[in-house]
Automatic annotation (TrEMBL):
It comes from the Eukaryota. Coiled coil: none annotated. The keyword Lipoprotein does not apply. InterPro entries: Endo/exonu/phosph_ase_sf, Endo/exonuclease/phosphatase, P-loop_NTPase, PIF1_helicase. The keyword Membrane does not apply. One of its GO terms (molecular function) is helicase activity. This is ATP-dependent DNA helicase. Keywords: ATP-binding, Helicase, Hydrolase, Nucleotide-binding. Residues 524-628 form the Endonuclease/exonuclease/phosphatase domain.
């Protein structure tokens, strides 16, 4: 065969491979003749194409096209093994000798590892009834190793350890709890071992006196009181997300809603999270199920089975659906899996190859420095520089070239010794949101804080550090309602504050409040009008407050509050309000294109005799009304 023919044959091999992949994705079967017809080649060309890529003796197994994914396919052995298997066919004398020598004499490396494991076992403090059996490490009849791996398992008498040696301990010590964990990779025989233990235990218990043969006393289940993690985002707002640690408390068995399937399987698991608030909404939502299961502990959260779909492999569109409980036994986690979680105490195992990024991720999982524990040698990471850290370069660029310009202006940004900040907010129940008010930096930066609809009772205490209450009204009845006003003034500014006017009009459920106070030769008037209160009532109160200010020779007046009158030219009430303000030389200083509520309306208004007075609206996380504030320049 010349060079040109070799190139043609190799090209044909590539085409055959691509076409075969396309056929395999359909999972359809065909005969060898149909396969050759589809490729449009004869058998001789097909064999030549296969040989073009061979560099050593190779064995081809005869099988159907839809059986190509099974390793080392052999029908008789597959039926005997009842699982996927890894086998190696030896076709050379050297390979055969190497396999035999490796089988009868382990490498020194494996011997050292075994001795090290024995030393660790002697120093272990694990109780004898709490053992861990890894089928990947324990010599057993359920394991076949590939000849090219470093460790070859010799099948000795110790391979029969699991069944005959464990059962006497269970039978002779029935009063003591017995735990036995079986781990190992896929195909090593875990299912076969578990089923064998289950059958022997069932046979033992049903032969005991006063036991019914049909009753099942032993079932292989997940051990309770063991640490687990949630493996799926179930209810993220409720704190049940991927990686959330918990303790398994109970497993509920039942049947899936499938025709002909009456097998008793785990349908629900109850877990206890580290924080009682985690899963609180889920427990409330499933309270009927919790009650039906007879769960008395209010901190146990039910975890239901979920269905997850994934592709069989990258080369096919076949979707596989898995119905399972999203829980994994875990006394430890990888750093990647712990992302998005926060723990009270963590132990980080540091290895040589732990990068700076992984260290940051691991250390930032803990709530405080007192809860951080390190195992290994910790070396302080090299300080990031612009040359070796692209993240740092991007942060510097964003700070210097791409700063965000906020559309909102905050009082703390403009506050200085030469101005006074006055704020009004319909807080929608100070009784409910008082902690939020005290921790709000924007509110605490103001000099005067005026709150409406506090829903307060006379016995309620709402003291704030560095502030003094100068005006307050509460609900008249014992039932909390949308009533009440409260004015805070910074204690340092108190000597310069004087309340000129206060008037409150109440008629059934309708009420209005107007309070005028002077500060540094300026008058600030707070206004609140309930939705059904008549404009004429508020008009009389406002006129009296304005006249009182003018009589005290204070001509710069700012009026702000919740008028419950929409800023619309077509609204008759707004027309009356606007005409009244113009008559008193007051002008609207808020941007009329903005809204002051979450309902896209502008009913919290601000007027001033000084059109140069700055007035702004910003956001609130506790109320559907947005706070409004003004800046008064102190001469």
């Amino acid at each position: 065969m010349n060079e040109q023919d070799k190139v043609s044959v190799k090209k044909l091999h590539s085409e055959i491979k691509e076409i075969t992949e396309v056929i395999a994705r359909t999972d359809e079967d065909c005969t060898f003749d149909e396969y050759l017809a589809y490729l449009n080649i004869d058998e001789q060309s097909y064999l030549m194409a296969l040989r073009s890529k061979l560099k050593r003796p190779t064995v081809f197994l005869k099988r159907n096209l839809n059986e190509r994914r099974i390793n080392a396919y052999n029908r008789e052995m597959l039926q005997l093994w009842e699982a996927h298997m890894d086998m190696q066919l030896v076709v050379s004398p050297y390979g055969c000798v190497k396999y035999i020598v490796s089988y009868v004499s382990k490498s020194q490396k494996d011997v050292d590892l075994m001795e090290e494991d024995e030393e660790n076992d002697e120093e272990s403090t694990v109780a004898p009834q709490f053992r861990i059996l890894d089928l990947n490490e324990t010599p057993s009849d359920f394991q076949l190793e590939m000849p090219h791996t470093e460790k070859i398992v010799s099948q000795t008498e110790a391979s029969r350890f699991p069944l005959p040696n464990l059962l006497p301990e269970i039978k002779t010590n029935p009063s003591e709890p017995f735990y036995h964990f079986i781990s190992g990779g896929a195909g090593v025989g875990k299912s076969l071992l578990i089923n064998s233990i289950k059958q022997v235990l069932e046979r033992f218990w049903i032969h005991q006196p006063n036991n019914k043969p049909d009753d099942i006393h032993i079932l292989p289940i997940a051990p309770t009181e063991t640490k687990y993690i949630v493996s799926h985002n179930i209810a993220v707002p409720d704190g049940i997300s991927n990686g959330s640690p918990c303790i398994l408390k109970k497993v509920i068995y039942g049947q899936l809603c499938e025709k002909g399937n009456r097998e008793q399987i785990p349908i629900r698991a109850y877990v206890q999270f580290e924080k009682e608030t985690t899963g609180e909404k889920t427990r409330q939502k499933l309270k009927n199920i919790i009650q039906a299961d007879g769960i008395a502990d209010k901190t146990w959260t039910p975890i239901q089975r979920i269905c997850r779909s994934f592709s069989l492999n990258e080369n096919t569109h076949i979707q596989v659906t898995r119905n399972q409980l999203p829980l994994l036994p875990s006394n430890a986690q990888t750093i990647h899996c712990s992302q998005s979680c926060t723990y009270k105490n963590i132990l980080v195992f540091i290895t040589k190859n732990l990068s700076r990024k992984l260290l940051y991720t691991a250390f930032s999982r803990v709530e405080s420095l007192q809860g951080l524990h390190i195992s290994g040698i910790y070396k302080k990471p090299i300080r990031a520089t612009i040359e070796n850290d692209p993240s740092l370069r991007e942060m510097i660029r964003m700070r210097s070239e791409a700063q965000l310009q906020f559309s909102l202006t905050f009082p703390e940004e403009v506050k200085n010794d030469k101005n006074i900040i006055a704020l009004f907010h319909n807080v929608r129940s100070l009784n409910l949101h008082f902690p939020n008010v005290c921790s709000d930096r924007t509110l605490m930066a103001c000099d005067i804080i005026m709150l409406a609809e506090t829903w307060s009772q006379p016995a309620d205490r709402y003291e704030i550090d560095n502030f003094t209450i100068v005006y307050r009204t509460d609900c008249a009845s014992t039932k909390r309602k949308a009533f009440g006003t409260l004015i805070y003034v910074k204690s340092a500014l108190l000597p310069h504050i004087n309340i000129l006017f206060q008037n409150e009009s109440i008629s059934g459920t309708n009420h209005s409040t107007v309070v005028a106070l002077t500060v540094c030769s300026k008058t600030v008037i707070m206004v609140y009008k309930s939705p059904k209160c008549q404009w004429l009532v508020l008009q009389q109160q406002l006129q009296q407050a304005i006249n009182t200010s003018l009589q005290n020779n204070v001509h710069e007046i700012a009026i702000m509050g919740d008028f419950n009158i929409k800023y619309q030219v077509s609204d008759p009430n707004f027309k009356n309000l606007n005409d009244f303000m113009i008559q008193n030389n007051c002008f609207m200083i808020l941007d009329p294109t903005k809204v002051s509520t979450d309902h896209n309306s502008l009913i919290d208004l601000c007027f001033s005799t000084n059109p140069l007075t700055n007035a702004f609206i910003f956001e609130s996380v506790t109320s559907d009304h947005k706070p409004i504030w003004i800046e008064l320049i102190n001469p």
